[in-house]
From TrEMBL:
Associated pathway: Amino-acid biosynthesis; L-tryptophan biosynthesis; L-tryptophan from chorismate: step 3/5
GO molecular function, one term: phosphoribosylanthranilate isomerase activity
UniProt-listed HAMAP family: PRAI
InterPro entries in the cross-refs: Aldolase_TIM, PRAI_dom, RibuloseP-bd_barrel, TrpF_fam
Catalytic activity, as annotated: N-(5-phospho-beta-D-ribosyl)anthranilate = 1-(2-carboxyphenylamino)-1-deoxy-D-ribulose 5-phosphate
Species assigned in the record: Actinopolyspora mzabensis
Family in the record: Belongs to the TrpF family.
N-(5'phosphoribosyl) anthranilate isomerase (PRAI) domain sequence ranges: 34-214
Name of this protein: N-(5'-phosphoribosyl)anthranilate isomerase
Domain of life: Bacteria
Lineage: Bacteria, Bacillati, Actinomycetota, Actinomycetes, Actinopolysporales
Alphabetically ordered keywords of this record: Amino-acid biosynthesis, Aromatic amino acid biosynthesis, Isomerase, Tryptophan biosynthesis
Pfam families linked: PRAI
Keyword Isomerase on entry: yes
GO biological process: L-tryptophan biosynthetic process
Amino acid sequence: MNRLVQVAGIIDADEAALLCAEGVDWLGFPLRLPSGKDDISEEDATKIVSGLESPRAGVLISYLTDADEVSEFCTQLGVTAVQLHGDVADDQLRKLKSDRPDLYVLKSLVVREDNAEELLALVDAVADSVDMFITDTYNPATGGKGATGLTHDWEVSAELVRRSPKPLMMAGGLNPDNVAEAIRQVRPAAVDAHTGLEGPDGRKDVAKVRKFVSESRRAFAQLG
Ligand SMILES: O=C(O)c1ccccc1NCC(=O)[C@H](O)[C@H](O)COP(=O)(O)O
């Protein structure tokens, strides 16, 4: 999996259709969030996922930490990839990978001011049990770990890319205006954005999505 563009936080079928039409590869569905405020129902997400044509794919974004629960939820939704945002124990990651070799597992690395060493150690510890890592940015003001719209120190992301034997998707405050420079500096395998592509109404803005996709493709191509 290389040079993917993912957009997270799908609200409904119209938004999913817009993203597919603009050439987004993976669509992320944050569900069963700890806040209890999901943007879409599980039923609607399932319907959208079932209508996606390969190579487009739906990705469950989840704070679940139990391998069996994750596996069952993925089956329910019909997704073939899951992005784990919670503090999943190493043994649960191993179990998920061994029980569900068909599932593409992404593990988040949430960058804070002072946790680079911790994240590098996590990469070393769990790389064998995941298919890809995804960075994100912690918001100290709210405690938020995802969809914060904040960038982090890209030198940390670049160090994680160099350290990881598995591909890394870059996320955290990316938008149409900074994604090309992020790709140039960090050299990730994939990029993801959520809030940076929204308009004032909280829905994905077609012009922002179009520019995010084209800037990402251009910058990936320039990596050679
Ligand atoms: O997207 C969400 O709503 C979300 C909520 C809670 C945890 C993770 C979440 N999404 C994960 C993603 O892949 C987001 O796109 C990522 O956090 C980047 O968001 P942003 O900084 O707004 O681009």
